[in-house]
Design goal:
Blueprint lengths: L1 H14 L12 H25 L11 E3 L5 H7 L14 E3 L4 H13 L3 E5 L16 E5 L6 E4 L4 E5 L4 H11 L3 E2 L10 H6 L7 H4 L6 E7 L5 E2 L1 H11 L10 E8 L1 E2 L4 E9 L4 H11 L7 E10 L8 E10 L3 H11 L11 E3 L1 H8 L21 E9 L5 H13 L3 E7 L3 H4 L15 E9 L5 H15 L29 H12 L3 H11 L18
Parallel strand pairs: 2-4, 3-4
Antiparallel strand pairs: 1-2, 5-6, 6-10, 7-11, 8-9, 8-10, 12-14, 12-15, 13-14, 13-17, 16-18, 17-18
The structure holds dihydroflavine-adenine dinucleotide.
Dihydroflavine-adenine dinucleotide binds next to strand 3, helix 6 and strand 10.
Keywords: Cell wall, Disulfide bond, FAD, Flavoprotein, Glycoprotein, Nucleotide-binding, Oxidoreductase, Secreted, Signal
GO molecular function: FAD binding; oxidoreductase activity
Subcellular location: Secreted, Cell wall
Amino acid sequence: MVGKITRAYEREVKEGDVKMASPKFGMSILFFFLCISFCSSTDQSFQQCFSSHLPPSNITYDVIFTQDSSQYSSILQSSIRNLRFSNASKPRYLVTPYNEDHIQATIICSKEHHMHVRVRSGGHDYEGLSYISDVPFIVIDLFHIRSVMVDIKNEYAWVGAGATLGELYYSISAKSNVHGFPAGSCPTVGVGGHISGGGFGTIFRKYGLAADNVIDAKMIDVNGNVLDRKSMGEDLFWAIRGGGGASFGVIFSWKLKLVRVPPTVTVFKTVKSLEQGATKLVQKWQNIAYKFHHDLFVHAVIQVTNPNSNQNPTVQVSFDCLFLGTTERLLSSIQRSFPELGVTQENCTEMSWIQSVLYFAGYSIAESADVLLNRTTQSTQSFKGKSDYVKEAIPKTGLEGLFKMVVEEETSVLILTPYGGRMKQIKSSATPFPYRSEYLYGIQYMISWDVAEETGKRIGWMRRLYKYMEPYVSTAPRAAYFNYRDLDLGRNSYPNTSYVESSEWGLKYFNHNFNRLVRVKTLADPHNFFWNEQSIPVLRLE
Ligand code: FDA
């Protein structure tokens, strides 16, 4: 089989834009039109199929919601985080499983009914791929699959894929004040999408990505089998830790290695405008932040200030720090390495790790950690994001041009995240996330807006900014972060996906790991059932 795949891979590359294996739901468009007249009988047939694949003890009636159901709309809207997609095409069914059996039955019946499947955990996908599709589809929403079992003695946790990061952090902190987990800052992000796409946060310089700290996983594959690490094998287990789960199956739960955090951590925030010398500070930050001690994380957030006042808008840069230790240790390090920032004892606040989670999520540290359990935070805005990686510090002129562009759009935000530390020590092929030792920092570009009519203008600005940055960021490939999904980088055709076509975006996200992902996908899902606009393609085997 492996020899077959190697030959198929060589053939595709040689032939260029050769069509790849197409999803087995190739008749879906025709099906869609026929469906208009046969909807209710199809609904019945799908539900009958679903029930027939469950053990009698496991039949529940509030798992499948059709568009006629009174709860359909509220469930669908509950985790749409980007309003840009709130009026997009809607799924034919929403399936809200309570256990593995429900997911198995959904996969089997979706195949039988030629329905496409999207899987949603926290709904934060930047391009809405977990809940929109141009072909008839079903959404499996995992919000019931969110139990968190923490074992402090053995330092691990099993977490359901539908849990949020907030629920995970809360559950760990309820059992220990010296354990944590290295993942993102936004508490409503789902662990299903986040960990399968990488996942970084304020302690990743010490412990690596969330995906680097997965010990085991349960996943339902294209045949409805429930696999764990042993039964899926090391290749597939490798692929779902950074290559995106959606290409390979439905991740049910993760077993995570907990990490040690000190009882006291320290934060500070120093904000400087351009007039206060922010450009010089960013210049220096670029050359030192990736070399800081693993315990020290200082990211730089660039945004417009005075956007609505009488003063001219300008750019400000906020240097936000989390240090895994006390103020005394932090000051001795930062005053030596970055004295220009002028950090003093007064700027620093000591707290527990879970309070630092609240702090970076924008809550007051006086709040109860219970706020992290709130998963219903509804977005009221549309947004577009992009990403880049930087290998060599951007020169002063480059930064000045960047700031000029930022000031044009008052809702733009750029987050510069320093690499180095543990990220530098992990091999770039250890997981599908390849951007490790050579990178100084990553950039996230973000713009948001309220009014649908502004979409073209705002996205136009984002694309101009991305073009402007080209000479200053990584090339061949121009690296991008999979979890900041960007369909501007390219998309698979439907129903045929070509390797060459998908290399456009695949190499940017995964670099040299892309080809291994393609090989794993070809074995795990040879008929490309788990297709989406940026799913890993399947090689055509003869
Ligand atoms: P969602 O449910 O939309 O899923 C995203 C993708 O994963 C989809 O393709 C989906 O089908 C697939 N998927 C989800 N669950 C799956 C499952 N169980 N099995 C198989 N496939 C599954 N990132 C970061 O690294 N650090 C950070 O600090 C942040 N912060 C942040 C804040 C905000 C406000 C947003 C909107 C996003 C971030 N992110 C981030 C990016 C985030 O990590 C990324 O969007 C994740 O994919 C979101 O995962 P969700 O489960 O929430 O999304």
